[in-house]
Amino acid sequence: MVIAVDAPTFDARTAAAGWILGHLTALLYRLEEEPALTIRPLPAGPTGPFVLALEAPGGGRALDGVVTPALEEFRGSFLAWSGRPAGAALAFEVRPA
Fold first, then answer.
1. Which domain holds residue 84?
2. CB under 8 Å to 82, separation ≥6 — which residues?
3. What is the rounded CA–CA span in Å between residue 97 and residue 87?
4. Distance (Å, rounded) from C-alpha 61 to C-alpha 66?
5. How far apart are the C-alpha atoms of 58 and 86, rounded to whole Å?
6. Digits of tens for pLDDT over the chain (97 positions)?
7. Burial class (CB in 10 A: 0-12, 13-18, 19+), 17
8. Fewer beta carbons within 10 angstroms: which end of the chain, N or C?
9. What total number of domains does the chain contain?
């Protein structure tokens, strides 16, 4: 899974990436609620993209019930962030291995 941030300026992108880094642990804990899911965060640069390797024995369909709600909750928190830079947005991509 890839989490990317888009913002109109470098400073805005840096601020938004900082928020992601600060909240990424909460997303990992949320995803770990599914015992069949194995998660491994991979190194990223200071402004991303942020990559989480996900593995589930049942494949993509097994992930839908956990990953999609967790990402929507994460996006909702980002959008509710009072310090969110104008124009900053998150993009998620879940790709099969």
1. 2-93
2. none
3. 31
4. 10
5. 39
6. 899 999 999 999 999 999 999 999 899 988 888 887 888 888 888 888 988 888 877 665 656 677 888 899 999 999 999 999 999 999 988 776 5
7. buried
8. C
9. 1
